[in-house]
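Journal club prep — side note

Before the paper discussion, L.F. wants everyone to see what a predicted structure for a comparable chain looks like in token form. Sequence:
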Amino acid sequence: MRKPRATAATSGPDGLASAGDVAAIVAGTHGDPFAVLGVHEVDKGFVARCFVPHAEFVTAYTLTGKKAGELSRRDEGGFFEGSLSLKKRQPLRYHARNAGGDWWLTDPYSFGSVLGPLDDYYIAEGSHLRLFDKLGAHLIDHEGASGVHFAVWAPNARRVSVVGDFNEWDGRRHTMRVRRDTGIWELFIPDIGAGRPYKYEIIGPDGVRLPLKADPFAFKSELRPATASVTALPPAHQWGDEAHRNFWRNADPRREAVSTYEVHAGSWQLHDDGSFLSWDELADRLIPYVVDTGFTHIEFMPISEHPYDPSWGYQTTGLYAPSARFGDPDGFARFVDGAHRAGIGVILDWVPAHFPVDAHGLANFDGTALYEHADPRKGFHPDWNTAIYNFGRREVVSFLVNNALFWAEKYHVDGLRVDAVASMLYLDYSRKAGEWIPNEKGGRENLEAVSFLQRMNKEVYGHHPGVMTIAEESTSWPKVSQPVHEGGLGFGFKWNMGFMHDTLEYFSKEPIFRKHHHGDITFGLVYAFSENFVLPLSHDEVVHGKGTLLGKMAGDDWQKFATLRAYYAFMWGYPGKKLLFMGQEFAQRREWSEARALDWNLLDQPAHRGVWQTVRDLNYLYRSRPALHARDCEPEGFSWLIVDDSANSVFAWLRSAPGGNPVAVISNFTPVPRDDYRVPLPMAGGWREIINTDASDYGGSGKGNGGAVEARAEAGGISATVLLPPLSTIMLEFAPD
């Protein structure tokens, strides 16, 4: 490793540190402790200076154990100084003693820098794509010693110190070296290892000591309510998921089956005492359940560290640390690997839109608005009482882009669903006139956020083919899921919030009134292929008094279950990838709460079991029939068969794709069975009924078509006469043999 030159300290003619330097070191106010402490050349010899509170005597040794000199106490606070019998500069260990005993410590100020000029260059430029290897706390060997290298960005601070149980949380003892070109503070502290809680003590530009700050790049955190960062070994998991990753690297996800199970890790299941499952316990239970139910992906609501359970993880204070609620970071790596080995992808909710203002977090990090905008019209989010990242600052953009790359590289995640994109794109989001600042062109678009999202997507797709990004974006912003080089934001997919809103509105109506709201269903196909859509029935629809999906369905209990099954089959037959929030696959009756587990006992009841079986069979059909997934994002895979039968609330369309037989999707959204109903079909011959949500196995009335219908060419064209069961969706697959 690169060794620095010996530094000439401020000293008198006798080589001793000045009284002012000594007092400043003891008080913790010195602006450059490396100029005083450590090993320094004086009159062709070397002296050592150290600050060791509680010590009465200190002897210096080389790292090999050779005695190098006795140091004298210059200040009773613990400042020691003395000549060394060394011929070259090298790190030192000290043997400290007092009336109560003795101890050894290695001098952090006798070591050179770990970061180098290339790091400074790329960090300052904002183009460093491996910040997570440089910033934060890293266990390393450096100049013959083992310890932890700490580095943090705080350009406006007067002083930054590492504090922890290893120094009695005393900010005077491990003051860091500032790299002025970048505002990065760094320090190598020997003799500490993994599992040590730490924070940064920061003196702001006004000389005021801030609340202790957690590390923005912490890779592990304490379990809440504690808030310290924790030194951690890098993930040591031996991955066995190459087959899974190779498949997705070479796949076009728009043309693959993507059926996602959205999960809140803290409430899917709990121990009997209400405590969280660990990642290993979740792997043992959740992965087999997802495989059995037929989903292709698990999407976790945010699992990065956050202090407040009811925020569900969306107010994160540790973007680089899997939450301590579920065990150590390696446990999450084991979960992802286990999911991949079982053929299941893992998507994370990711929150670059805002961050909480907890005192230990990013807000006012170095005594200034560093990560956020200083002006609340740009830097404060009125909906969530949070701070908004300053996307115009290259270091902030770099922090966030690196975080996206970090999860893809270190934990092999298959995708990032980016939360609250609309709030990022519009400067006037949730703001009244006078509460926002127009962009440089006088508009409401947040051009800096647009640039950030484009860069993030370019870097993720450029460095990690096979990883997808998904935007939760609720407006008509153009080209969200089109490439950056074509003027898009660069996401792989966008949530179709219009589909969710319109269909739930439709199914909340009593069947007799649905004929007046026919357009709620048909309108979505006007724009269904304008983006690469995911159809979300997410957690947002089953909280805050909204009830559950079952509760939203109109009618009595039988009708609610029938309509929900028909709705799911309608959605699985509709163009777009699928997402369903946990518990809705078995028709959870109680609104979701993060404070309790799902009501798993409902699976013992036939009606609920029938909904689960419907979802399971739909997932199987969706995955096994190219017609249902391979042209989800292309208009060539969809054509209407019946679009205007509002009187009967019947809809029918055809799904098709190369390599598979076409599938007709037919829905009857009234409780009236339709006998001898004529459905136009593109080809004469046999059509097999591959699902009927009114089947008795699902809890329905058992009406159907005996498993098949025959399409015949007649004067009016090719058609089949079918029985449409009440409140049902059926699918017919062309099967001429």
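L.F.'s comment for the group: The mean pLDDT is 95. Keep this in mind when we get to the figures.
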